[in-house]
Amino acid sequence: MNAEKIFHRRGKTAASARSAGGRAAGQGPPRLDGRAARGRVDRAVVRRLVRGIGIYAALVGVAWCALAPILWALSGSLKRDGEITEPTMLPADPQWSNFGRVFELLPMGRMLLNTTVYAACVTAGQVFFCSLAGYAFARLRFRGRETLFLAYLATLMVPLTVTVIPQFLLMRAFGWVDTAWSMIVPGLFGSAFGTYLMRQFFRTLPTELEEAAILDGCSTWQVYWRVLLPHTRPALMVLAVLTWITVWNDFLWPLVMIQRNELATVTLGLVRLQGQYYSQWPLLMAAAVVILLPLLAVYAIGQRAFIHGIAMSGLGGR
After folding, report:
1. To 10 degrees, the CA torsion angle through 162, 172, 125, 161?
2. Cβ proximity of 245 and 295 under 8 Å
3. Which parts of the chain register pLDDT below 70?
4. Which of 16, 111, 189, 301 has most Cβ atoms within 10 angstroms of its Cβ?
């Protein structure tokens, strides 16, 4: 009996040793029960929820920092002179007449039309010539292409204020001072940033499109105009919106070139209004809102295409 008991105990010991060795060899720890598994899942859900709340809270804070000045200007444009310093967003008695006074004191309608014409002409020229140059730098092979592109790209490091005096001398030599040509021609023939943007987008297009068009007998111009350019609409929309905003908000160049109200832009009108009615902040805020509304309309119309173009062109930080 003693021998049988000893043999039985040795068998149990060996079995337990084999099971422990099996777990150490890769069978893993024993399975958790249902309560522990649910606890881990609940903690993961809570962490994910807290992370999402933190991200959305940060986005709401950034959006509020961007929208607060616009909302304050809109609120101030509807207040009286005595209410402008009160920390209230909604005016007690909205003064819609402030917007009418802006159009009475300034030829704001004419200034809006002038700025729209300038922005439209410059935007059309930028879109056409930048896409043409971007296609040449991306698809055409010629000697010194990379060197010329780097030299052109280096002009981005030159401050715009440095080129004001040379451009003014050129406009005076042409007799274009205080004319619409001085507002349109200097920015009509493209820019280094626009060329770089279009070049990078053209390089993402497959070469099979160009090869198939050449096999079909298309010329270089037809390849650019009919085959590749329609695929660059997202980048064209980004360039168009950015150019429109730049021309619309420009103040230094119109200040140097334009003296007559018949040719003035909205930024010049706002500064001249501020010089005459510097203490009437509701009036100035109403003028600022009038200037801002066309930009909001342009962005609202092209919002989806603009965001898609940012993502496709790589400007979104990808």
Report:
1. 10
2. yes
3. 1-37, 39, 41, 310, 312-318
4. 111
